[in-house]
Design a protein that fits this description.
It contains five helices and two strands; from the N terminus they run βαααααβ. The termini are close together. The longest helix has 10 residues. Helices cover about 55% and strands about 5% of the residues. α2 crosses α3. With about 70 residues, it is mostly helical.
């Protein structure tokens, strides 16, 4: 299994969003956002696409598999 590093926490902070606010934009729980941010859980591919679209980035710009 590949561990993904991600910029989700930084991107969220740049917009001054709480984890709960980001979760609302993504239709997931705040706990899911926390688990992705801390690397405890990798998002599904559909969720990764949704995150990338929300931040107007590519998946590769948000997630890095070179960990």
């Amino acid at each position: 299994m590949i561990d993904l590093k991600n910029r989700l926490k930084v991107l969220r902070a740049e917009r001054d969003w709480s984890q709960a606010e980001l979760a609302g934009h993504l239709d997931v729980s705040r706990q899911a956002v926390n688990a992705i941010e801390t690397g405890k859980h990798d998002p599904s591919l559909p969720l990764a696409f949704k995150i990338a679209r929300l931040f107007e980035m590519t998946i590769e710009e948000v997630f890095d598999d070179q960990a």
